[in-house]
Amino acid sequence: MAARRRIRQLPRVDLLGRPRRARGRKEQEARVGPGRAPPPCNLPAGAGGLRRARRRGEAPRHHPRRPVQLRQFGGGPHISALRRWRRPPRRRGHDGVGEGGAPAAGGARPPAALRRRAAVHPAGGHARGGGGDGEGPRRGERGAPAEGRRPCREVVPRRGIRVRAGRRIREPQLRRARLRGFGGDITRVEYQFLDKLGNAVEGNTRIPVIERELPQQLRPGHIYNTGAVKQAKRDLDSLRLFTNVELNPRPDETKQGGVVVEIKLWEDEPMSAGVNPDWTIVPGDQGQLTLESIKPGGTVSFRHRNISGLNRSLAGSLASRNLLNPEDDLAFNFEYEHPYLDGVENFSRNRTFKTNFFNTRKLSPVFVAGPSMDAAPPIWIDRVGLKANITEKLTPQSKFTYGIVLEQITARDEKNKICTNGSRILPNGALRMDGPPTTFSGTGVDQTAFIQANITQDNTEFVNGATIGDRCVFQVDQGLGIGSKNPFFNRHQLSVTKFIYLNEQKKGPGKPPPAVLALHGRYAGCVGDLPSYDAFSLGGPYSVRGYGMGELGAARNLLEVATELRVPVTVMGQQALVYAFVEHGNDLGSSKDVEGNPTEFFKRAGQGSSYGVGINFGMMRAEHYRSQCWHWILLLGFWREVLSDVSHPSIRKLGSHINCEGITEKIS
């Protein structure tokens, strides 16, 4: 009745877009949703006025829709997406409106039947699909109406169905849009191994290894879904067993409406080996860059993947600074990985056993002089031992690792001799050897055993090359009281990183990465016995950048915070990343609790801050930062050498370059 009363008030008509049988705003909200009922808008009467109002954006074009319905139809693997909406009544004959939208002559009121037909519907058109001023297709037109086809094309792909074409279905008072997409029930999954030439071969990988990585939506009995196909390809690529993976659907000839998923796999070479030579560039006495030694150093490595077709692997590496005579500083690492510890066909648990036998040598950041004193003789820490652990995947984003570590630690000086205490150079040039002890036993050699466990929650993802999300890692090392002087301790660390979207970008190739704000915090502490080589160091690319390794101190407890702003820019037609950072590290007053107090002995501050800016452009990284004074560094390609600022005190002290590999990787 309200609509009839509005029609009588010619020449203006109140245009209402409402659901079927919805009278009044409260009933519209109950059907459509709170706050979503379309308000009335006064429009000039007549077809011309309606068209002009639509061009100005003052008139709604169609009703609130009903949800898209998906159903299977026909004899092939197709899905039907249906969307219904109310057909507008046909305007025919006398409607009280003259030519051009003017009122009828004499102001005579039309009959009630004609007034009902004259109710203007926001979708336009008339009851039989032709001859009106609306936007619905006329009789005989092909293709689904835009009002119904557009929502279907938006909703159906989100459900993983590929849309092919649309058509309109005629009913007396309803319009329906049907879009056909390739779907249907999956009847079986076929696997095919191919060589480099595309010929079918017998694969080495066992089928259960592949089936474990397939999502549940891609198994027989489920509707074919393109989203599950993309996920399966990512999971199969993560195995690192195949150079290429393709998943293609095809109709099942034996079952009407069925779909067969073909998985084509190109296996990678199971065995590989390589040699990576290395020469170190260091600043000379006059500040010029020179080779540390003409003797070639490097790494020899090998790897055997997919042993017995069960994704087991054996890898090893040998490294030395002098490959011609590797006895002085030979480092090695042999690792065996055994996935599917509970059986390859046991999908309920996913545990991996890993063990490695190692011998490493690293420069100790604990015995490093502060910026206000001369360089101290370096102390090298050798670790030889065995580590075995089990990693259990709790969820796709979290994992839990636990195991045992047995190792022997030896402290050595520059001449590769066992060293029991740290040393420093006095102002008169004399060498003082009464520094902090290098080992817990005081002999220069320690043996220890401890249990190590950590849990990782990683919710990060890559958006056009930028990391977005959050990551949390908690690790505990518990001493067993076995070894030199029966050390018993508990070391714990908590690291939290958050990557925040600043401007959302659409995902896709060629799309620019979003601007990101990275927040990072780390706390570490130790209760019980603490050898100097296990003290937490402050300063360096993985702690507070702008300082050398351990330049701020060595502590029992520490707190680090950092923030970095990353903004993508375009330089010479290529994407580059400009970033600014602020970092701070503090020993929380715990440096004095380390045996021998190496922070005070080497005149270090125990805390410090730094800030700066930088740019990543291709294989080049340039950074300008301030710690105690302004410095800048330039990194080219895979070289990690400092090409400027050769007067930096940490370079003089260590006699080598600052390894800046983790400048941004610390919080990325």
UniProtKB/TrEMBL annotation:
BP term (GO), one: chloroplast organization
Keywords from the UniProt entry: Membrane, Plastid, Plastid outer membrane
Start and end residues of each stretch annotated as Disordered: 1-151
Entry keyword Plastid: yes
Keyword Plastid: yes
Gene3D superfamilies, sorted: membrane protein fhac, membrane protein fhac: a member of the omp85/tpsb transporter family
Record-annotated Bacterial surface antigen (D15) domain positions: 306-617
Pfam families the UniProt entry points to: Omp85, POTRA1_3_Toc75
GO annotations of cellular component type: chloroplast outer membrane
Biased amino acid composition, Basic and acidic residues: 135-151
Residues annotated as domain Toc75-like POTRA: 187-267
Family annotation (InterPro entries): Bac_surfAg_D15, D15-like, POTRA1_3_Toc75
Compartmental location: Plastid, Chloroplast outer membrane
Biased composition (Basic residues): 81-93
PANTHER family membership: OS11G0116500 PROTEIN, SORTING AND ASSEMBLY MACHINERY SAMM50 PROTEIN FAMILY MEMBER
Listed name of the protein: Bacterial surface antigen (D15) domain-containing protein
Organism: Digitaria exilis
